[in-house]
């Protein structure tokens, strides 16, 4: 036992040492674990502090275990220690929110029902989200509730923004869908595999389908394949290109062939994955028709512009020349190939300046830029260009709606010259009016005085300022009646002017002024509706007319005395001439016995002189009766050929004695006329006698007289011509009835003219000095 005690004591000590070592090891391990737990706790606390959510424990006695951050979130001065401290007057939760949270916590305590509340503290714009549920036993004990609180202010705003954006997107999508559905042209959408997924009503109507679903199920395409390219091929090309593709194809729309512009648009938002192909088709049939019509209109317009006299050019929006008509090319020396090169407007100005087709200016660059700026103006510009060669151009620049320019140039050189001439003419007219012998006034259609000359003013003795007021004719003439010898005659002047202005008829009259002057006046309607009043002073002509009338009366009396004298003298001469002729005939007949040869020759001479004197007396009587208008002509059938042949036979011996060739050319069918045969014989005989007598003194050899006659159903023409010296004063002599140098008593041509006129015919005398004389007598067949 003695030996066992130490062993036991050593065993106990060893066990005690082992226990101490275990305890030390356990303590070290526990210390290490404690340090690890403390570190973990600190890390978890840091994580909790850094977490966007804050854990809060509400115990059964409504004590609150939470971080100080809860007070900051709720706007409190410090972190709450019990539930009631969550409520404040101007911070924390309001009474309704506090009570709402209390009821939610009670529900979680009783039924372990989790909840979530979004509450807004007082005095701020924060939104606090409370997630609550029953707390684990190890956390808060029985009846405790664990709250996870998060500040959802930014999240709520983002959520509200997202909701608004979503609502706006939905509204836009609805509006876009409605717009696509209401679009009057076909629209569609294809899936990435190019199958139709959406079509609008216009598409359905265009392909004459029952519904959009039927179109999608059947895959009905709007466009037929053109040149081997189908609608899906075009969509695939757009998908491969990654950009919109368009084409113009014919499409049958509701049974009618139309031209459509089809566009395929690949849809890949922000360059991401392809979501499909959208497409639409626009009917451009009217556009193409209008484009063709516009093209034809432009061609017709340019053809018309080529026919205009004005120079016209068109410039495109880029200021290049696209058209110039022929007058423009001629005016500015442009060739057709130059126009085809579409030169710019500025370069054309430079070329025109070198060719003298622009006006001379001091600062050409500034002038050039000002004219280039025509394209930017909204209104037309108009200028007058005076060129170096004196040509005047009127240039009009009209901007076109497309940004181009229409340039019109008109050569107004002639108009400017005419305007100058017109101004000169107006000045000349004014000077002429004022210096005319006549008094002139022009009245407008309303009766107002329009123009007048100074003679008119002086004639009526009217002040200039009164005429310058352009008074009406009744007001003007009413105050001038006292200028006339008979004042009531002023109404005649007014009536004449009224007739010219209103009735457009010309009238005339005569008035006498109080000072004894006489005036003829007339009103003449003018083409512009005005009336011209002309007043002519005829005082001198009135006096001359009186003198002429007195002289004429004296001449008429003298003419009567002369006619009576010629008639009486002819009668007195014819009586002894008849006795002489009678006794001469008795001597020739041998009543006084046989006469010796010498006595016979004397008697023959006496009888010849009696015949000549008898004819002269007859001529004097006929001439006197012709001048008095009492010449009586017998009317009986006259054989024209026999009459002319007899006249040729009677004149043959005289012509032969004067060594003049006498010839006759008498046409067949001369027939007869009604007339006085003796007097016609005297006419032809007298004309032949004059022709022989005028030709003989000059043409002692080679002289020739020709009697030519021809006729038709209406008239007979007798022509007697000679190649003598001619008669320089023939016309005067015939008019006066005398013929200088004749030996036929000086009355041959005058008497012949009167006898021909008495037969209803005409006599024409043509004579040229040194060439001869021709007398044409034209006689009618009947009366």
List strands and helices in order, with pairings.
Elements (H helix, E strand, L loop, with lengths): L3 H47 L2 E6 L5 E2 L3 H6 L20 H17 L3 E5 L8 E7 L2 H4 L4 E7 L1 H30 L4 E4 L5 E4 L1 H6 L5 H7 L12 H11 L3 E9 L2 E12 L8 E8 L1 H23 L3 E5 L5 E4 L1 H6 L4 H5 L4 H10 L9 H9 L8 E6 L5 E8 L5 E7 L1 H23 L3 E5 L5 E4 L1 H7 L3 H5 L4 H6 L11 H14 L3 E6 L5 E8 L5 E7 L1 H51 L7 H32 L7 E4 H18 L3 E6 L5 E4 L1 H19 L8 E8 L3 E8 L7 H7 L11 H11 L3 E7 L3 E9 L3
Parallel strand pairs: 22-24
Antiparallel strand pairs: 1-2, 1-5, 3-4, 4-5, 6-7, 6-10, 8-9, 9-10, 11-12, 11-15, 13-14, 14-15, 16-17, 16-20, 18-19, 19-20, 21-23, 24-25, 25-27, 26-27
Describe the overall structure.
The chain has 783 residues and is of the alpha+beta class. The chain has six domains: 15-46; 51-151, Beta-Lactamase, CATH 3.30.450.20; 183-283, PAS domain (Beta-Lactamase), CATH 3.30.450; 290-417, 2-Layer Sandwich (Beta-Lactamase), CATH 3.30.450.20; 436-537, 2-Layer Sandwich (Beta-Lactamase); 633-780, Heat Shock Protein 90 (2-Layer Sandwich), CATH 3.30.565.10. The strands form six sheets. The chain has a five-stranded antiparallel β-sheet. A five-stranded antiparallel β-sheet has the order 7-6-10-9-8. Keywords: Kinase, Phosphoprotein, Transferase, Two-component regulatory system. GO terms for molecular function: phosphorelay sensor kinase activity. It is an enzyme of class 2 (transferase). It comes from Sphingopyxis lindanitolerans.
